[in-house]
Structures are given as C-alpha cells and as structure tokens.
Amino acid sequence: MCGIVGYIGQVDAKEILLKGLEKLEYRGYDSAGIAVMNEAGVHVFKEVGRIANLRGAVDESVEATAGIGHTRWATHGVPNQSNAHPHQSASGRFTLVHNGVIENYHLLQQEYLQNVTMKSDTDTEVIVQLVEHFANEGLSTDEAFRKTLSLLHGSYALGLLDEQDAETIYVAKNKSPLLVGVGDTFNVIASDAMAMLQVTDQFVELHDEEVVIVKAASVSIEKLDGTKVERAPYTAQLDMSDIEKGTYPHYMLKEIDEQPGVIRKIVSAYTVEDELTIDADIKAALSEADRLYIIAAGTSYHAGLVGKQYFEKMAKIPVEVHIASEFGYNMPLLSEKPLFIFISQSGETADSRQVLVKVKELGYKALTITNVQGSTLSREADYTLLLHAGPEIAVASTKAYVAQVAVLAITAYVEGKSKGLDIDFDLKAELGVAANAIQTIIDKKEEIQQVADAVLATTRNAFFIGRGIDYCVSMEGALKLKEISYIQAEGFAGGELKHGTIALIEEGTPVFALASQKAMSLNVRGNMKEVVARGANPIIISMEGMEEADDSMVLPAVQELLTPLVTVIPLQLISYYAALYRDCDVDKPRNLAKSVTVE
Ligand code: F6R
C-alpha cells in the first residue's frame, strides 16, 4: 500500500527519497512522487507507474536538503498524475504526503473548503487544504496542523512541508505505520525501516495520535494534547543483504528458496535447552482459553486454517478461524473464555487491526503471530510470537506462510505437551525432516517448471482440490496462482466439486490434487476420476509411500500434520513459473499491495 519517506539534513534529498521509494515498491503502488524544499520554495515531481518514470521526471538541477516522497496505491480517485502525492494547498504553501483513508473527508470539504477548488479526487487533498485554511485564519503551522488532525476520522501517516519554513517536516500518524529514523546530522521518516536503512539503522516508533516535529538536528514527539513523549531509538535488525535480490531474478524465487532455512531458524529461535518452547505467559493464556479465535486475511488466513487442525489435534482446544474483514462487523457469539490469535506477516493489516481494537475494548486477551517486530498488531496485542522469516518483499507471500504454519505447529505442540497430552512424534525432529524435504523439492524446481509450462501456459482457469489439511493448502495454491499469474483459480474440498463446481470443468482444464493424507488419499483420487471423466487435465501431487503410477509429483514423506509445509512448495513454484511464462510482473502483481493498511 502507500508508502512514505522523508529526509531533512545536509545533503541533497532527491536521491535518498527516490532510493527510499524504491525500497517501498514491494508494498504495491500505481504512482509515485517527491517534493523537495529549499529556500526558493517547494518543487513537486510526480508520475503514474513505476519509480523509474518518476526518476525521469525529476529535475536534477534542483538542489534541496529536505523533502518528502510517496508511493500511492489508489483508493480515492484513479491512478493518475493529479491524484498522485504529494498534494499541495491552493496557494502552494503546504505540501503533503498521506498514507491511509480519511473517512469524513467529504464532510470536512463541505464544512470548511466550499470556496477551494480541488485539484484531485483524493481524500488527502482535503487535509492539506485544511491546514492552509486554518493557517489563513492566523494559526501557526503547528497549530493549523494539530487543528486539522483533530478533525480527521480515519487512518493516516502524514508528512507535511511548509515552504515558509525550510527546516521542518511536520509528521503525524494514526493507525497507519510510520517511523522516524535518526542520524547525526539528519533525520528521516519512513513507512518501513527498509526504506531508510540506506542512511541509518536507528529508528523511533511512532504511536497513534502523536505529532512529530522533525528537523535536521532534532526530533520532538508530542501527543495531540501537547504532552511531551520521550522514546529511545531501537536498532533495526536488518541488513541490506536481507532486502536485496542478489543474483535472483525475483524476490519471490529467493524467498521460496529461503524456506528450509526459515524453518531451521524458527526451530532454533523456539528451542531452549534442546526443547521446543514458548513463553510461559502465552502457554498460560492458551491453557485458560476455552476456545481460540484465529483472525487473519489472505494467505495468513490459510495458515490459520492449518493452525486450527494443529490446536484441535495437538492441544485439544476448539478453534474458529475467521476472515478479519468479516469478523469485526459480524462478530459471532463468543465462548466464555476466548483467546484471540492474529496471524499477519506484516503486522499492519487494517482488517485485522480493526478486530484487535474491538477485542481489546471487550477486554479479551490477544496473541499476534507476525514477521515484523514492533508492528501495530504486535504492539497492541498482549503477546507476540515472531516468525523469524526475514523481510518478505515479493507481494505474494511464500516464506511467511511456511513460517506461520511452523510457528503454529510449535505453539500447539508445546501447549499439548505442557498439558500432558499424548503426541506421538518429536516435532523438533520432524520440522528438520520437513526442512530437508522442502530443500529436495526446491532442488528439482526445473521439473516443476515443466509441469507449469505444460499445463498452465494458455489455460484461462485452474482448480486445486484436497481433503482435510490438503484442502487448506489447495486454497493457498489457488490464491498464489491467481494473484501472480492472473489465471482464474479456485481451491475446493475434493468432495465438494461435484456439488456445483464440476460444471466448470472443460476439456483440458487443469485440476491439481493434493493427496498427502492417508485417510483421504483414495477419496481425493476418486474425485480426480470424476473430473478426468469430464475432460480435466489432472496433476496429482502425492507423498512417498502413497504414490500411484500416474502421479505428476511425489514429494518426500513428512509427518502427516506437517504436510502443509511441503505440499505448498510445488504450488508456489508452479505459480511462479506460470507467471513467468505469461510475462507477468512476479514480484509486483497488478492491483495488489503487500501491506494492506486500509479496510
Ligand atoms: C497473498 C498475500 C495476502 C496477505 C494478506 C494478509 O500472497 O500476501 O493475501 O496474506 O494481505 O497480509 P498480512 O499477513 O500481512 O496480514
């Protein structure tokens, strides 16, 4: 989603801003812009499409040591140049970048800005016009900014320039992520530390409803009511190699290849004295709960479906898994002692966050499972379990899914063991086996490429079926394929196809089946016979020990509950190669954003 950067210091800001925006490209965007400010005023450059287009539009002769930049993922108004950020007030005095959605922008426009001619269709422009409106009434910029903030309903991360004060960036945030990065002779702002790792690894978290005055030599944080806030910087635990592609053609392929290492890292992070473990207070919260409510979106929701199987089978706790955007507004009848588990790679997903806010208001405890330490969902929950997957840059989630499944398995296993339940395998050893199995599959990726090229090159749709835990992975396989190759794809419970969807099967329609569960493998093979009889092109993915002659892929055997870690790998690779074959932008698929910070 939208990304923000800002710099104020001693050297020219343009390149720092542009490089910062390039590091935010992964979040998804459709236009980009920067504004730089010097004693002569503010200069705005913006373009539709990639940062490369923006680079071409920037006037190299303009030198300025302060500026703000933005990548926009359109919400209000189509992606065009006038809707791209930064936006300017009517006189051009104020310039603003905004991430988030202002729900009452139309009302504010009607109440305060009847006489202002708007230059864009965005909610953002209302903010910058309001600042000017209040400044024209005699308020200082600081006062006009605060007055404006007090009127906004919705989410925002903001960076504001006033051309009458070339030494300040005004910053504020509510619900949308924003960090201040600190340096010796400069300070920066960024939606994600990655954007400014080029100049500093020292960052200060900002909290909701804080206003920050950023100058080259100082950062002053206050709450909206004027109370001073002191907060020490932390060191971002990232290095540039984590966020570079290296020799890989795409981040997605790099991240797929990283998955065996991610599982090993998780095992090591959750091992104490040779035993898998989680914090005692999380164990206590799980033990007290009479039901778990897993809340998530997209791929993280699919990991949650696997997590349900783990908690019910290994820890004997009933679980409901809910799509975050549905749960908040259609809350089911809750059990007496619920524990909420939020699963989110980014830790910033607005749909999940709105549920967390409601859950906290109701006084319930929440655990967040996330890849991003210090993210909003982590800060606002009672407990956090980290994924240790390293930054995931490709929009399509791969290693974070595998990490989510592994952390859910560890959590359920540790809880089951601490309750004295009979779990007849050693999870630590089995996760090692699964990591090796993933490596074996990755080492044969050329074979998977051949399957993808053969069956997905020209098809307009595809189906993925499975039963039990394989059904959960089928849905993830379908999501991966549609999001990066734009092939219409659906995941179904094997037994459900014949209740309607089978009508879509035509001559040559690819149907992928996962057959990794002993008790259901024959049933799913039976379902495949039904679609083959109607012309489908079958691709059966099975496991050693359960294979049959015509199976397209036979994966190394792993503990039956851990098959989602392994069966998802060929599906990720199949999607990757289908997208490559179709010349799609693998890492930045159309219309998608990595961190979905609007509801
Ligand atoms: C799919 C994908 C999305 C995310 C979803 C939730 O590849 O990445 O479906 O899983 O937007 O995002 P997080 O996990 O950051 O809450």
TrEMBL record:
Domain Glutamine amidotransferase type-2 residue range list: 2-217
EC nos: 2.6.1.16
Domain SIS: 282-421, 451-589
Keyword NADP: no
InterPro entries recorded: GATase_2_dom (IPR017932), GFAT (IPR005855), GFAT_N (IPR047084), GlmS/AgaS_SIS (IPR035466), GlmS/FrlB_SIS (IPR035490), Ntn_hydrolases_N (IPR029055), SIS_dom (IPR001347), SIS_dom_sf (IPR046348)
Positions annotated as active site in the UniProt record: C2, K594
Swiss-Prot/TrEMBL keywords: Aminotransferase, Cytoplasm, Glutamine amidotransferase, Repeat, Transferase
Keyword Magnesium included in the entry's annotation: no
Reaction(s) the record says it catalyses: D-fructose 6-phosphate + L-glutamine = D-glucosamine 6-phosphate + L-glutamate
GO molecular function: carbohydrate derivative binding; glutamine-fructose-6-phosphate transaminase (isomerizing) activity
GO cellular component terms listed in the entry, alphabetical order: cytosol
Signal peptide boundaries: none
Chief site of localization: cytoplasm
Subunit structure: Homodimer.
Protein's name according to its UniProt entry: Glutamine--fructose-6-phosphate aminotransferase [isomerizing]
Organism of provenance: Candidatus Kurthia intestinigallinarum
